[in-house]
Design a protein that fits this description.
about 375 residues; alpha/beta; Rossmann fold; 12 helices; about 15% strand
Length: about 375
């Protein structure tokens, strides 16, 4: 079995796997081939990968066609799919909710495609959970970016020249990214308020020393993946009214609200931004799925009424080494979970709950029920 790791074909600071995990895979008795220059963005040389036991391949097309398992970060380009070996296993982000043509092409090529973002958020799958590991780093990075752009310091300071009051940070959404943002802002000494539509998030927020903003929205809850469910227009209106009060007093607002598989809800309106103090900072961590903030622009920092709105994509890549380390561990743990020691190969156990949730295409078909084409019943008219 040849596990291959091609170099990403567009700008990306992270890499799918580090030498330490490749060494573990090689010790399992498998062959690992990496494309030359894989670790350039992290200053990891080809020699380090070779020392870990990896084979090196210069030709991008040749490495793709040789893989029994393909490990990567981003979904393959359409033209790359025809290079892949039929019956091979692709493990990467696939964005399956928005890539129906890609899924159909993978199925046609008889690729068994695992969407890494569809791994369930269960206790057993925690060590495989790429979304959580990367979201945690995004939350950290958002706070650091806000601190670097704010014209104040975060902590309270008592000095001979007077007392400096702590900065106020308002975090919207207390999932993995939001909780890490809260923890980071608290470590820097800020006063933190946080809001989430899920009542279960309150205990986590309080445990980090932040204040939980409570809004009676009626029935809300969360999805099986742990995401907040979409709110009604009436619930959103009520939520915005309360949040406007907190945004008005905040020095930093960080939004992390996303609904899995759907466009991010618009939470922070232009009216709310207009009520904020000039010099305040907003970081929109949902920008890649449409954004939570009106006027936020993908991959840009814009200004409204003196308020900076940061909408940079791929925030984990700003701490690329640790993001790569965590992603690499997640991939290794996935392979290890389904490794057959006797046959020295990865087994695609179709009846396993983890595989059922993340396997999108297999044996020439789209097999995941969420994305499989619906069969239409033929109706016959009696004549």
């Amino acid at each position: 079995m040849n596990i291959i790791i091609p170099k990403e074909q567009h700008s990306e600071q992270r890499v799918p796997m580090l030498p330490a995990n490749i060494e573990k895979l090689v010790k399992k008795g498998t062959k690992v081939t990496v494309e030359t220059g894989l670790g350039d963005s992290l200053n990891i040389s080809d020699a380090e990968y070779k020392k870990a036991g990896a084979h090196l391949e210069k030709n991008h097309r040749r490495i793709l066609s040789s893989g029994d398992i393909i490990l990567r970060l981003h979904k393959p380009a359409m033209k790359e799919i025809s290079y892949l070996k039929k019956g091979s296993i692709l493990i990467s982000y696939l964005d399956p909710f928005n890539e129906s043509k890609l899924l159909a092409t993978l199925a046609k090529q008889k690729i068994s495609a695992i969407a890494i973002e569809m791994i369930p958020r269960s206790t057993r799958a925690q060590k495989l959970d790429v979304l959580s590991s990367q979201a945690s780093l995004a939350g950290y990075t958002a706070v650091m970016m806000a601190a670097n752009n704010l014209n104040k310091i975060f902590p309270m300071m008592m000095t001979p020249a007077g007392t400096i009051q702590p900065s106020k940070v308002f975090v919207i959404g207390a999932g993995v990214a939001g909780l890490q943002a809260i923890a980071t802002a608290r470590r820097l000494g800020a006063k933190v308020d946080a809001f989430d539509t899920r009542p279960v998030a309150k205990a986590d927020v309080l445990s980090l020393g932040a204040k939980f903003v409570e809004v009676d929205l009626g029935e809300t809850g969360q999805t099986a993946q742990g995401y907040a469910k979409a709110l009604t227009d009436e619930q959103l209106k009520k939520q915005r009214e309360i949040m406007k009060q907190y945004c008005t007093h905040a020095d930093v607002v960080i939004t992390t609200a996303q609904v899995f598989g759907r466009k991010a809800p618009k939470i922070v309106t232009k009216e709310m931004i207009a009520a904020m103090k000039p010099g305040s900072i907003i970081v929109d961590l949902a920008i890649e799925t449409g954004g939570n903030v009106e006027g936020a622009v993908l991959d840009k920092t814009v200004e409204q009424n003196g308020v900076k709105i940061i909408g940079h994509a791929n925030m984990p890549a700003r701490v690329a080494y640790h993001a790569s380390q965590m992603y690499s561990n997640n991939l290794y743990n996935l392979i290890d979970e389904f490794w057959n020691k006797d046959k020295k190969q990865f087994e695609l156990r179709l009846d396993d709950e983890i595989i059922k949730n993340c396997l999108i295409t297999h044996d020439g078909k789209i097999v995941h029920p969420t994305f499989a084409p619906r069969k239409t019943e033929k109706k016959f008219q009696k004549g």
